[in-house]
Design brief:
heterodimer; A: alpha/beta; Rossmann fold; B: alpha+beta; Serine Threonine Protein Phosphatase 5, Tetratricopeptide repeat; 4-stranded antiparallel β-sheet; 12 helices
Chain lengths: 210, 418
Amino acid sequence: MNTTHRFIILSSVAATAAFFAGCANEGVQNPSGVPVTQVNPDEQGFVSGTGVESQDLVTVTDKMARSILSTPVIASAATPPRIVIDPVENATRFPIDKSLFTDRIRILLNSKATGRVVFLARDRMQALEHERELKESGQVTSSYDPNPVAFKGADYFLTGKLEGLTTQASTGTSDYILYSFQLIDARTSEIVWEDSAEIKKQGLEDAAYR
Amino acid sequence: MAPRAPALPRLMAPRKHEPTGRLTPLLFLPRGVVALLMLAAFELLTGCMDEVAPRPAIASTGDPIVDGNAELAAAPPKDRVLWDDRIAATALRIGNFDEAKAKFDDAIVRGGGIINNTADAAKARSLFHPEDTKTFIGEPYERIMDYYYRAILYWRDGEPDNARACYRTGQVLGSDVENHQYTSDFVLLYYLEGFASAKLGEDASDVFARAQATTKRHLPPYNKDANVLVFAEYGHGPVKYAGGQYGERLRFYTEESRIRSARLTVDGHEVRLPPYDNLNHQATTRGGRVMDYILGNKAVFKSTTNTVGNVALVGAAVAADQDSRQGNEAAVGLAAVGLISKIASAATTPRADIRAWDNLPQFLSFAALKLAPGNHSGQVEYLTKDGEPDPDLTRQVAISVPADPSANTVVFLSELPR
């Protein structure tokens, strides 16, 4: 192979390599971004996290349901305590359907621990009162005397709060979220149970979006 | 002296050990080089061309939501958020709040996460695809507006904490960490975050101070007893265009709105609605994007390969003019390099993405007031630079305040028709 052939081959290879190479990304760190990874809250993350997702909901509510059942006021109660759910407060930067958390805890407790706690459907009071009024007025039949008020009062309120901390840098974004839940004695206002879960996530967007 | 052979075309000079029956440039090159050339050409002809599916014709019905949804259905998936945004803003302005909510939620779900390792984003970064190959989620000012508008709907639904969450995410999107600006200068995102916290019974003095530090305009102190929240917008937002030699620079065209303020009169009381935020300012004052750097590299590559192609082709012509075997061989090689460079240059697409949420306002305003339960009639006027109302834009406003003291009535006023 003479010098001219070598020149031709090298030139063609160089041109083709340049053709296929992603030269436009040169000098850009992590052009593809960094996948969101879950890290322990006490672990030093390289950036910060992202939002509330279904796996977080499942993890957090599973933990809370187990924790509630093991608390003495529930585990040792002579009669099943009546619980009313008070809406969770969202203090994070992520808009969410807040009822998902308390709904799943209620569903877990009702399905896995039948009879150990009783939830009162306060969110249905308008429909329930209307039904009682219909029965009282005789517009619909009733299998019981509708006159005395039979709506039960709450022994405890179950509520919670989601709080967050966001960190942002050129290396990415991270979000730490603290999910805390409380069982409050309706008579004394004492917090008889409280537990929390923490999740931290971090990620970096594709350079095409930065 | 032997007679000279008649001159052959410059680039087709015969080569040693090579049959001369069919004279094409490729026959003079080693097989490996030919293979590389063919591979490059194949890539150009296949991978570099996006297949554009024929778009069905949209018959206009005159209903902006119906027409918008038809456009959305016909649009490629990468433009879904763009149409979500446009439809949602229109729906909000005409009072179709369920539609607005559904579209903003879709836009936020699709564009609100951290997007990485997606094929379309990788393509957008590659040399041979334009930036608008990627899924549209908007520039930061557009993404912020998704959350700003969604927050209005959360207020309407009695969820001030979720509204506050929207403002907080808007602040994160508004900070420009790539250019070391770690705070947003979007006044209402701070002011309304604090207002939501105040309504939730929390201390909002810090965030109020931050909001006040962001603007020279005096911000009214929070009135926790306010039960009517007025959100106003006027003027037309920024328009994107592509600048630079190859359209590689994202630029914004802005035009100062004729309308500079608004005034709501209810029960004889005047409520001023000054411009607290300016989306033109938000769009044009942000620093450069990482993607601008990539597009710049694409433009340099395009320019360089074009120059290399020109030089190589000129060199090929000069070499061929030598009329010697070595000269002809060099000419063939240079011509091949020149051809590849020119093809690569032509295929490189540094064009910036100029898809835009094109029905955004320029100015945003807010006011909170306390009204007695019941129905109230008011009037909104949009004021020009001279402080005079434009009579063509004056509208009557009906405000219904519920008896529930914890409920907030949201009034959304827009100068924009759709």
